[in-house]
Amino acid sequence: MSAADTRERGNRGRHRRAAPQRAERPSASTLRADFTASVVVFLVALPLCVGVAVASGVPAELGLVTGIVGGLVTGLLPGSSLQVSGPAAGLTVLVLEAVNEFGLGALGVFVLTAGLLQLAMGALRLGRWFRAISIAVVEGMLAGIGLVLIAGQLYAMADAKAPGSGPANLMGLPELLVRTARSPEALTAFVLGAVTVVLMALWKHLPPKVRVVPAPLAAVALTTSAVALFALPVKRVEVQGLLGAIRPPSADDLGRITDAGLVGAMGTVVAITLIASAESLFSAAAVDRLHSGPGTDYDKELMAQGAGNALSGALGALPMTAVIVRSAANVQAGARTKASRVLHGVWLLLFAALVPAALGLIPVASLAGILVFSGWKLIPLKELGPLWREHRGEALILVATAVAIVATNMFEGVLAGLLLAVAKAAWETSHVQVQVDEGADRSGPLRVVVSGNATFLRLPRILDSLEALPKDRHIELDLLDLRHLDHACSTALANWADRHNKGEGATRVLMPAV
User: Fold this and answer.
1) Residue 484 DSSP SS3
2) Compositional bias (Basic and acidic residues) spans (predicted)?
3) What is the DSSP letter of 209?
4) What one-character DSSP code corresponds to residue 478?
5) CA distances (Å), 299 to each of 14, 31, 75, 124, 311, in order?
6) pLDDT given for residue 4 in this prediction
7) So what's the architecture of 432-510 in CATH?
């Protein structure tokens, strides 16, 4: 999912369709189109499910479990007809932090709780409110995720272990470069990852007949073949088997969460809930513009995502969101109904059940390369320049959110971005003007008109203007044109009038009728 996609989602998601079309009735041609689209989506989803799981520090099979649930459960529920759900790169950093801090067993508890919260929010019809989130905060969130994802996956490309936090990963990159250059094995793995990144970047420029195969699948297939053909000494995906990887939450997991800290655990749950919900609903707004079928019911879609996450959590798997890459592939492949996304879940289930050993052939460096490329696409480099020229405050919020995520963690970074967005909105809406009218007769009272929105944010300016007035003049303070006067301003103006009246001058205050 690129930052451009996110901006498009935000702009297009502000308006619902006036007259959604009826869902297309099943027919032979519809079923053929859905079948073909489901195969395409399966081929796109397979390497991404595995890659996100490995990058999140969990067994590869858990990524497939989330993809299966996203197809078979979320895919059947009402909401958005054509968008596809599964594990997303956008939650990789958050999940990795949670697994490192609380353990793998706690992940199911977090995802299950987040799913229940999504169900509750959908039932309360809060889905539409996610469209009110500042696009600058969302793009900053994605940019921060992209930076942390790239920094962490560069280590995986060299078959090395990342130090941990975002700043530590970034600071350790020079040392990683030196170690990689000195180790033939690490250099081999890094080259495989680099080849994957190059293939992903150049794939869209190749002939259409070649691009029939999705870029992630082609990159994994080529690098896996090279590893097998030349017996390259690189790390490969560890395989446990589908049933062996599933681990439902237990009472012991709850105890470990309590011991590790409830505040941090609640912050993780809230972050998963908000980020997964926002990403899914922004994706729905974008997918609606890609097809002419029924539009999304945001509240029902939020409940569908909640049901999927609740079941994923009950199975101890990864959190899910709607994923724009898979959803766009689904639409572009000609999908007509939700049958395509359900069938893609069937193919994932068959793959995981029948040929799980195939995962053990995939080099970790190649999956890391896919995620490095995905992280790069999350950074809105092209949009930042125009945004800086046209909406400088929004650009600053975007950068500040990204930096905060890299410097702290996902939840605190997004919270910082939201607070900055609220502060910016409050500052911009609290415009106030102070006009001083000397009048024709300078011996008469000095008339001061205050108009606009008098809030505590503009109080210093108002008081500076008033305190600069002559102390010995009679003053008529006209507040009739104020649209809003908060308590802080009202109290401060009353105090100023009292002080002025104790001097040689006098003050008459004209207040609006309540």
Assistant:
1) strand
2) 1-11
3) T
4) E
5) 15, 28, 15, 8, 19
6) 45
7) 2-Layer Sandwich (3.30)
pLDDT less than 50: residues of the chain: 1-23, 514
CB 224 within 8 A of CB 364: no
Check residue 10 and give its pLDDT.
44
C-alpha span between 414 and 405 (Å, rounded): 7
Angle formed by the axes of helices 28-55 and 215-230, nearest 10°: 60
Where do we find the tokens 């696409």? 377
The model's pTM is 0.71
Going from N- to C-terminal start, the domains of the chain cover: 3-11+27-423, 432-510
Could you report the per-residue pLDDT of 279-329, keeping only the tens digit for each? 888 778 777 777 777 778 888 999 999 999 999 999 999 999 988 778 888
Q: What angle do CA 216, 222, 226 make, to 5 degrees?
A: 145
Distance CA 210, CA 473 (A): 83
State the DSSP code for 295: P
130 Cβ neighbours under 8 A, 6+ residues apart = 277, 278, 281, 282, 298, 302
Buried residues in 187-204 as b, exposed as e (16+ CB within 10 A): ebbbbbbebbbebbeebe
